[in-house]
Specification:
The chain has two domains: 2-28 and 108-184, Topoisomerase I, Chain A, domain 4 (Orthogonal Bundle); 36-103, Gyrase A, domain 2. With 186 residues, it is an alpha+beta fold. The radius of gyration is 22 Å and the shape is elongated. 59% of the residues lie in helices and 15% in strands. The chain has helices spanning 2-28, 77-86, 109-146, 151-184, and strands at residues 43-46, 49-52, 57-63, 66-71, 93-95, 100-103. The strands form two sheets. The protein has a four-stranded antiparallel beta sheet with strand order 3-4-6-5, with helices on one face. The protein has a two-stranded antiparallel ribbon with strand order 1-2.
């Protein structure tokens, strides 16, 4: 039985990782509110190499519509500003010589629909990943059966793998539904 348990534990662990990855990706989808994660992928030319923006400055929210970027070195203001503009995020940084402020514009209805599609796509990717994990678990259970494990134990393991899959797909649906609500709220 411990072999079946190992297969199921590995599958559960991998499915949890797929959910965690989805949560991180969904944070990057802009929902009209200012969020420091929006700038996570911005790379700044600093000291002769490319560095992530959070490696040269602190990024915080002032309110629901404003991001504040405070560089640790004032000479980094202009490179940070250029990097944000080059990232093509639709954001317009304002440099006041001390900090950079970014007013996050409200989303248009069309942009909200695009972001909803993007969130659904991320959800589908997560579901495909979870189903692939289930497929791998089923294959491992079949190998155990060929190795001498009784058929009823394998069937029980397959049922449990399907239950795990259903539970995780349901979690994905909840995350996507929550993100859609967040995006469509004006």
């Amino acid at each position: 039985m411990s072999d079946v348990k190992t297969v199921l534990d590995n599958a559960k662990s991998a499915m949890e990782k797929a959910i965690s990855h989805l949560e991180v990706e969904l944070q990057k989808v802009r929902a009209g509110k200012a969020n420091p994660v929006m700038l996570e992928n911005v790379m700044v030319d600093a000291y002769g190499s490319k560095m992530p923006i959070n490696g040269v400055a602190s990024v915080n929210t002032q309110d629901s519509r404003t991001l504040i970027i405070q560089p640790w070195d004032k000479s980094m203001l202009t490179p940070i500003e250029k990097a944000i503009q080059a990232a093509n995020l639709g954001l317009n940084p304002q440099n006041d010589g001390v900090i950079i402020r970014i007013a996050v514009p409200p989303l248009t209805e069309e942009r909200r629909k695009e972001l909803t599609k993007s969130a659904k796509s991320l959800g589908e990717d997560a579901k495909v990943g979870i189903r692939n994990i289930r497929k791998e678990a089923m294959e491992n259970l079949k190998k155990l059966q060929k190795g001498g494990l009784p058929e009823d134990m394998v069937k029980d393991g397959e049922t449990k793998a399907q239950t795990l899959t259903d539970a995780h797909v349901s979690k994905v649906d909840k995350h996507i539904e929550q993100k859609e609500k967040e995006i469509m709220t004006v």
